[in-house]
Amino acid sequence: MIYSHLQSHKIRAIHHDHFIIYDCHLDCRKNKHYHCCYCSKTVINKSDFIKHIHFCKYSSTHCTKTARQQTPLATLNHETAPPLNTLNSETALPASAVNHETAPPPSTPKSETAPPPSTVNRPMAPPPSTPNIETAPPPSTVNRPMAPPPSTPNIETAPPPSTVNRPMAPPPSTPNIETAPPPSTVNRPMAPPPSTPNIETAPPPSTVNRPMAPPPSTPNIETAPPPSTVNRPMAPPPSTPNIETAPPPSTVNRPMAPPPSTPNRQMAPPPNRQTVHPTITPNQETAKVTVVQRKQEQRVNCPHCNICILKKNLKKHTQRAHSNIEHDVTALSCLRSLCIDEKNGVFAVSKSSKGPCIPVHVIKKTWGSSHKVTCDVDICNALIDFKRRSGMRSCECTHLKSVNYCRSDASKVSLQEEVLQEMVTQRWFAEDRKKQCINLQKKAEEEDTCLASYVDIGSASHMHYISVFEPKVSFYNRLGRIMVLYNAKNNTWHCPCSRPRHSCIHKAVSKWLLFQTKRNMFRKVKSTEEDLATKSLLPADPDHTLAKDDSKSTVYPPTNDDLKKMVQYIFTIKTIPSSLPSSTTSFCEKEFPKVLVPDEMLCSMCSEKVPLSDPLLISKKAKIVTTIGIIEDVETYCKKCPVCGLSYRYQEWNSGLHNYDDHIILSVKFCLLLRSFLQSHTAVERVCKALSVSTGMHYPSSKTVLCAYLHFEALTDHNYQFSCLKCGFHPSVVIMDAHRKGVFSMPVSETEKPPANFNGHVDVEAFWNSLRLEIIARGLVPCGNHNPFAVKPNFHLWAPWIGVNTRKSGTVLNTEWEKVHPSTSNPVSELPVSEERLIDELMKLKVSAVRRLCESCGLGKKGSKMDLITRLRSEMQSRSSYDKIFQKVWGASGGWAVVMCPCGVVYSLKVLMRAESPRDFTDILMSWKHLPNVTIYDFARGLAAHANLRSPNMIPFSPHEGRLLEPNEANITAAEKGNLKVSLKWLKEKKFPSDVNGHPLTGTSEHYVLYDRFHENNTKDSRDKLRKIQLVPELAGRVNSQCAEQLFSQMRKNNYFLNVMKPTNHVFLMRNLLHHYNVAKNNRFVEQLAKHVGCTEVTLDQHGQALSGSSFESKNKSNGEPNAQKVAARKLKDYLKTSWEQPLTKSVEEKLTDVLDTNKSQSEHVARIYSTTLMREDFQTLGLERDAEATILNCCFKIIEDISALQGVQVWTSNSYVNATLIPPLCADPMLHIPVDASAKDCILFPSWSKSHWMICVSYWYDMFKFFQINVRIFCF
Question: Same domain, yes or no, for 1011 and 910?
Answer without folding.
Answer: yes
